[in-house]
TrEMBL record:
Residues 194-423 form the Sigma-54 factor interaction domain. Pfam families: AAA_lid_14, GAF, HTH_8, Sigma54_activat. It comes from the Bacteria. One of its GO terms (biological process) is regulation of DNA-templated transcription. This is Transcriptional regulator. One of its GO terms (molecular function) is sequence-specific DNA binding. SUPFAM superfamilies: GAF domain-like (SSF55781), Homeodomain-like (SSF46689), P-loop containing nucleoside triphosphate hydrolases (SSF52540). PROSITE patterns: SIGMA54_INTERACT_1, SIGMA54_INTERACT_2, SIGMA54_INTERACT_3, SIGMA54_INTERACT_4. Keywords: ATP-binding, DNA-binding, Nucleotide-binding, Transcription, Transcription regulation.
Length: 514
């Protein structure tokens, strides 16, 4: 490694410091430059977030790595790197497990990493994260290259420092954040991260940040399992009420006789079993946010009483004449088409309009492209830790199966699938493996190719005739399949097809589907 080659590699990164670049692009260029300087099979930049390391950029590792969250206490190599003041190279025969075993991209049989080195990054004299390099061959890295890595790490720290400062300019004051974090910890609420990089996901995050800063009532809609509660938590965290409580109530989990008591509270003797006075969810959420999940399940009677509280901010506990004033921001969620419920007389129009001041649609998992791999990585790391495995990975055919599947149960279905498949795959092993690979066969997803081929064959048979008939036949197939996926929810189907609901209704009538 010559001083000239080091200078040639670092100069473009120095120039990048003064340029406006997206954070992801800035980090990607950083890793590419490092691999040019120190040839390796994989490199990663990880940020220390509490007790875990979060991958911000990877080069040469599987896509799902970006969704993983590595607990430092469970990965001794990371712990060694973070405790060192400078670069560290592990011996090729080190007995410490490598966190990237099985994650180097494009491998099928040779899965274990044999040469590894890394360096901590410090920002404002505090540990910020790690740079790691891995090779599949033994003795790939030389001791002398540690000096080059140290020089590179200094510039990398400057790069992340620039990105951090840009990010801090866009965040609210640090003391507000700290107060919110203290409250979350005291109340037992843990912040859950929203994982994704697709355009659809980024648009959702932008909307969350936009409406979060307001006090508007939000109606979150979307299919079962898309993460509506997670979106509600993110809206609250982005609001001026973030340091106040977020209180949740699942309206479908309670019998109607108890919903009013849960919402408004009760006094002693209000009903059989009411032995003590009790505050309801509205009073508990005073000053903060109340999240009503499955709000489409509320009866017309409860809707009328809720409407009064939302309009006046005043409520009465069951069995009491005393008025209580509350200041609550309401977020509601449903997988029902409430506009359709209103038209059918099953939902109050005035209550619906009071809820949907700011409607927010959460996209289905099938609309988020390769986000499924990032989410899979998150759940894989969770299960790896829970099952005490060295590595839990997806084979290339398993990744392809995840991308091809339609996900009617969305993120919740993916989470359950990863946990179930990992457990079954481990049960099929005669000896406990160091690296457990999940194949498409382990995932046991429905074969998506068969119905597609069948539909193509049917369409091809019709195409031999009249073009207009063939087109209409194909439209019937697409619309019918979409309606089946959405349990004949016309509004949801229209969104997936990119049509206005009224246009879809007219088209369905023309095609004799309605």
């Amino acid at each position: 490694m010559t001083a000239q080659s080091l200078l040639t590699t670092l100069l473009p990164l120095v120039a990048d410091l003064s340029r406006e670049l997206p954070e992801g692009e800035r980090y990607r260029r950083l890793l590419q430059a490092m691999r040019a300087l120190l040839p390796c099979d994989a490199a990663a930049l990880l940020r220390l977030d509490g007790e875990s390391l979060v991958p911000l950029a990877v080069d040469g590792l599987s896509a799902d790595t970006l969704g993983r969250r590595f607990k430092v206490s469970e990965h001794p190599r990371f712990a060694v790197l973070l405790s060192s003041p400078g670069p560290t190279r592990f011996d090729s025969d080190s007995e410490l497990p490598d966190p990237y075993d099985g994650l180097v991209d494009g491998l099928h049989g040779h899965l274990e990493v044999h040469d590894c080195m890394g360096c901590p990054l410090f920002v404002d004299d505090r540990p910020w994260g790690l740079l790691t390099l891995d090779a599949l061959d033994t003795e790939r890295f030389e001791r002398v290259e540690l000096d080059a890595l140290q020089a590179f790490a200094s510039l990398a720290a400057a790069t992340v420092n620039v990105a951090e400062r840009i990010e801090r300019l866009a965040l609210r004051a640090e003391d507000e954040h700290q107060r919110a974090e203290i409250y979350r910890q005291a109340s037992g609420q843990q912040h859950k991260e929203m994982i994704g990089q697709s355009k659809t996901h980024k648009r959702l995050v932008e909307e969350i940040n936009l409406v979060g800063g307001s006090d508007l009532t939000v109606l979150i809609t979307g299919e079962t399992g898309v993460g509506k509660e997670l979106v509600a938590q993110a809206i609250h965290a982005a609001s001026p009420r973030a340091d106040k409580p977020l209180i949740s109530l699942n309206c479908a989990a309670l019998p109607e006789t108890l919903v009013e008591s849960e919402l408004f509270g009760h006094v002693r003797g209000a009903f059989t079993g009411a032995l003590n006075e009790r505050r309801g969810k509205f009073e508990l959420a005073n000053g903060g946010t109340l999240f009503l999940d499955e709000v489409g399940e509320l009866s017309l009677t409860v809707q009328a009483k809720l409407l009064r509280v939302l309009q006046s901010g005043q409520l009465q506990r069951l069995g009491s004449d005393k008025e209580h004033q509350v200041d609550v921001r309401l977020i509601a969620a449903t997988n029902r088409d409430l506009a359709e419920e209103v038209r059918n007389g099953r939902y109050r129009a005035d209550f619906y309009h009071r809820l949907s001041v700011y409607p927010l649609q959460v996209p289905a998992l099938r609309e988020r492209g390769r986000d499924v791999l990032l989410l899979a990585g998150f759940f894989l790391e969770q299960n790896r830790s829970r099952m005490g495995l060295g590595s839990l990975r997806l084979t290339s055919d398993a990744q392809a199966a995840l991308l091809a599947y339609n996900w009617p149960g969305n993120v919740r279905e993916l989470e359950h699938l990863i946990g179930r498949s990992a457990l079954k795959a481990l049960g099929n092993c005669r000896e406990r493996p160091k690296i457990l690979s999940l194949s498409a066969q382990d995932l046991d997803l429905p074969d998506v190719s068969a119905p597609v081929i069948e539909a193509q064959a049917e369409t091809a048979a019709v195409v031999t005739g009249d073009l207009r008939q063939a087109t209409e036949h194909y439209q019937r197939q697409v619309i019918s399949a979409c309606l089946e996926r959405h349990q004949h929810n016309w509004a949801s189907a229209a969104r997936e097809l990119g049509l206005d609901r009224a246009n879809l209704s007219r088209m369905a009538k023309r095609l004799a589907l309605k």
